[in-house]
Design goal:
Layout (H helix, E strand, L loop, with lengths): L1 E6 L4 H4 L12 H13 L5 E7 L7 E4 L2 E5 L7 H15 L3 E5 L3 H13 L3 E5 L8 H8 L1 H13 L2 E4 L2 H11 L4 E2 L19 E5 L9 H9 L4 E5 L7 H11 L5 E4 L7 H7 E6 L8 H8 L4 E3 L7 H4 L3 E3 L4 H13 L1 H18 L2 H14 L1
Parallel strand pairs: 1-2, 1-5, 2-4, 5-6, 6-7, 7-8, 9-10, 9-12, 10-11, 12-13, 13-14
Antiparallel strand pairs: 3-4
Helix pairs in contact: 3-4, 4-6, 5-6, 11-14
Amino acid sequence: MKKICFVIPRAYYLFNPKISDAGDKIGGAQKQAYLLSTESARNPDFDIHFITADFGQKNFEQIKNVKLHKTFDFNENIIARSRKLASALKKINADIYIFRSASAGTATAAAYTKKILQKKVIYMLAHDTEVSEKLQRKHSGPITAKLMNFVYKNADIITSQTEFQAESFKKFRNRQTEIIKNIFTPNKLENLQHADRKTILWVGRLSKTKNPELLFTLAKDFPEEQFVMIAPVVRDFKKYGEKIRQKAEKIKNLTYIKYVSPDKIDDYYTQAKIYLITSESEGFSNTAAEAMKAKTPVLSFAVNPDNILNKYKCGLFAGKNIKKLYADFEKLIKNSELRKKLGENGADYIKNHHDKEPVLKKFEEILNAL
């Protein structure tokens, strides 16, 4: 039996949604790690462990066959956090450690695991900006970009989410990756009535790369439409997030919601007639996929992974062209049949390309090969 350890400290809330002070730390990287860990834990050949941060839970728990280890508190200083994380990594003594989402902390922990503990390391790309040092430096800063170079060069396996990431990583980093698509389970939407949908939905953590102010511009220019923004203010961008929250709350036709739990978020997707992505860049957008699951057409300003919006006709892509974004928005507002068709195509795409069984099979093949 192989012992596998996921090192994704922010993901604890997905295992225990009742815990406090964790909801604003959940993004696509955490959701995918949660799904891969819980699904892999069904396989008797794997002993699955998961390192999480301290949110007031027990030191050790077992949930859905995954063994959870509490480590540091995000409010502790960097020395205390590093010490507790290093101790947990050594104590668990896994055969393979899995990291996801670039940061200085991730880079340091992965380097310690690889060089000091002499363990196998898998790193999973979570964002398109990771494909080159130039893009990462602009997105995450010079320190993270420099430290992550070690991970990209020395991890035993690098996984990518899309063909674009795989090809770009090979081009700029000169290294092959294994494509592991994100897992999404299709919704049960037999009784869904498209005519009842009323809102334009935006979901995401408040950071500059999400470009939320473009949403405000659209809301102000289309005062007859009702917009919904689900957007937690996160620790990493607190000052910026508070500024955006204050702006959002002043827009009359925009409803700002700080946070919605994972078990209730589908209600908002199924109430939306358009899902809007204003981000400058993403990896593979989990929120867009959630919208597609709900048969909601996607309108994207700059993000179109592997050209799926065009190729599978599940949304409209503006290609960073503001005039086209406005034209596409008006087209979707006026044409309910187009919205319905794009929404149905999106649900078909998710069902045909992101089913958990083939994704999990490839992931487990990678684990067995190390």
